[in-house]
C-alpha cells in the first residue's frame, strides 16, 4: 500500500513540477530543506552564491513563494532563506541529548533530491568522514551523480537530518572512464557546521531526541521503510529557483 501510494504521489508531483518549471522562466539552482515551522530553509552556497531579490522556493505540493536571503556564509558553505508562510512539516536534525551525532562511515543514508529537476531520491553509504583534503564538517556521500542536488537533505534510516549536499555533480564534470574509473566525489555538510551557522543567524532548527520519531523500525519490510523515509523527506525538501 505504501509503495503504490508513493508511486502515484510521485507521478502527480512530477506533472506539477514539470508544468511549473516550463512556465516560470526561472532557472533551477538546486535544493534546500525546511528546518523549522517559521519557513526557514537551509541550502548550500553552491545553490546561492550571492544576494539576490529574485529567489523563489517551490514546496513539495507545487506552491511557489518568494524567498528572502537571511544569511550567506562562504566559510561554512551554508545559506539561510526564509519564506513568510508557516510550515507544518519540517526536518528534524539528528541529536542525542541535545548533542550532535555526526555521520558514521558506512552508515546508510537517503538523499532526497531532484536529479536534473526530476524527483529522484537515492540511497547511499556514507564514505570518508574525516577526509584530510576537506575542512572539518564535510563528509563524503558515496553515490555516482547528483545533478542539481546541491542543498538536498541527507537523511539517516530514521529520516533524521545528518547533513545537506554541498555540491552536486554537473553534466560538465568529466572523469576518465577506464579501469580506474571513480565517480566525482560528492560531499555533505554536517551539523558541526549547521548549528553554529544557525546560532549566528539567531535561528533555531527543529530537532528531536527520539531515535525513531516516525516509527520506521515498526515496518518489517525494508522497502516500506525506505519508501516512507522518502515520502517524509520529500515533504520538507524544496526546489530553489533564480532568474539569474
Structural write-up:
This protein has helices spanning 2-24, 191-200, 222-235, and strands spanning 27-34, 40-44, 56-58, 64-66, 68-73, 78-82, 93-96, 99-100, 108-111, 114-115, 118-119, 122-126, 138-142, 153-155, 161-165, 186-189, 207-208, 237-242. The chain has 244 residues and is α+β, with helices and mostly antiparallel strands. The strands form four sheets. The chain has a seven-stranded antiparallel beta sheet. The longest helix has 23 residues, at 2-24. 39% of the residues are buried.
Give the secondary structure arrangement, pairings included.
Elements lengths: L1 H23 L2 E8 L5 E5 L11 E3 L5 E3 L1 E6 L4 E5 L10 E4 L2 E2 L7 E4 L2 E2 L2 E2 L2 E5 L11 E5 L10 E3 L5 E5 L20 E4 L1 H10 L6 E2 L13 H14 L1 E6 L2
Helical fraction equals 10-25%
Roughly what fraction of the amino acids lie in strands? Answer: 25-35%
What average pLDDT do the residues reach?
A: 84
Strand order of the largest sheet: 4-3-18-1-2-6-5
Order of helices and strands: HEEEEEEEEEEEEEEEEHEHE
Counting DSSP H or I runs of 4 or more residues, the number of helices is 3
Outline the low-pLDDT stretches: 1-23
Rg on CA atoms, Å: 17 Å
Find the structural class using helix and strand composition. Answer: alpha+beta
Termini distance? 42 Å
**Structural shape:** globular
Number of strand elements: 18
Largest sheet: 7 strands, antiparallel
Amino acid at each position: 500500500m505504501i509503495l503504490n501510494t508513493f508511486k502515484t504521489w510521485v507521478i502527480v508531483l512530477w506533472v506539477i513540477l514539470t508544468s511549473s518549471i516550463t512556465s516560470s522562466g526561472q532557472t533551477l539552482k538546486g535544493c534546500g530543506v525546511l528546518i523549522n515551522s517559521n519557513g526557514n530553509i537551509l541550502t548550500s552556497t553552491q545553490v546561492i552564491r550571492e544576494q539576490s531579490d529574485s529567489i523563489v522556493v517551490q514546496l513539495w505540493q507545487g506552491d511557489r513563494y518568494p524567498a528572502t536571503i537571511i544569511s550567506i556564509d562562504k566559510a561554512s558553505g551554508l545559506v539561510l532563506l526564509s519564506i513568510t508562510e508557516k510550515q507544518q512539516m519540517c526536518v528534524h536534525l539528528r541529536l542525542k541529548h541535545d548533542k550532535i551525532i555526526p555521520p558514521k562511515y558506512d552508515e546508510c543514508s537517503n538523499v532526497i533530491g531532484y536529479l536534473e529537476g526530476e524527483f529522484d531520491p537515492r540511497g547511499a553509504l556514507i564514505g570518508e568522514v574525516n577526509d584530510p583534503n576537506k575542512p572539518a564538517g564535510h563528509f563524503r556521500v558515496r553515490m555516482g551523480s547528483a545533478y542539481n542536488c546541491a542543498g538536498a537533505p541527507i537523511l539517516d534510516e530514521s529520516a533524521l537530518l545528518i547533513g545537506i549536499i554541498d555540491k552536486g555533480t554537473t553534466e560538465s564534470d568529466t572523469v576518465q572512464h577506464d579501469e580506474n574509473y571513480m565517480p566525482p566525489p560528492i560531499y555533505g555538510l554536517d551539523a558541526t557546521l549547521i548549528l553554529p551557522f544557525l546560532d549566528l543567524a539567531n535561528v533555531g532548527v527543529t530537532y528531536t531526541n527520539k531515535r525513531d520519531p516516525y516509527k520506521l523500525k515498526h515496518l518489517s519490510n525494508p522497502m516500506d521503510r525506505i519508501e516512507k523515509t522518502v515520502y517524509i523527506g520529500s515533504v520538507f525538501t524544496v526546489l530553489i529557483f533564480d532568474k539569474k
